[in-house]
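Retro notes, structure queue

What went well: the backlog is down to a handful. What didn't: a couple of records were mislabeled last round, so from now on we paste the full input next to the output in the thread. Example, using Thioredoxin related transmembrane protein 4 from Pseudonaja textilis:
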Amino acid sequence: MAAAVFPRRCCSRWRKERISPLQVMLWGAAGLASLLTVAASLKPEPEPVRSHVVELSGSNWSLLLQGQWMVEFYAPWCPVCQQMELAWEAFARNSKELELSVGKVDVTQEPGVSGHFLVTTLPTIYHAKDGVFRRYRGSKTLEDLESYILERKWESVEPVAGWKSPTSLMMYGMAGLFHLSGWIRQIHNYFTGTLGIHIWVSYAIFILATLLIGLILALVRKWFYTLKARCKKMGIMY
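Corresponding output:
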């Protein structure tokens, strides 16, 4: 008797509160969805795939002077660089079997390093063997990259001339110019992006700064030669 009364009371309660069976089903589905969401959030996130490509920068690019390397100069916005990214990563995974190291340099972040190699096109690839550099001009496929090493094709390529070598005094000066250009670009982006200065106003600021620096250097040069002439006139060695 009590068992028969319970369903009637429940049904009468649903009728009084106007709760339909459809609402009960929706509440149950919502509760189940919440439980699934919580369960999914408790799952450990998969670990990011570790890259085998060595990121080279101004602080560690001298690693290229020891052992055998293949290094790519790239930019994130470069379409060709993006297309060969998977092949370059696969090439790096096989680096132990090929007995070499595989690196890359982001020219947008490391203009000084790209200056050492006088990089003007992207992507640019160099082969390095104990500090001797050769420009790789072959196909960017994995098969051609591996055959370049396995068949020692790099031996038939003319090494970079001494005055163009990344370790030469001239290339150190070029690296300084590249680094300066990157610094100027960052300031220009700060003026136009962060401060909202018009692009032509930013150009005008750099022109005025260049003229001011030139004027200061000219005054310093004039002062130096004037001082030197006075010292010579007074018999003082300078």
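Agreed that this is the format going forward. Reviewer comment attached to the example: The longest strand covers residues 68-74.
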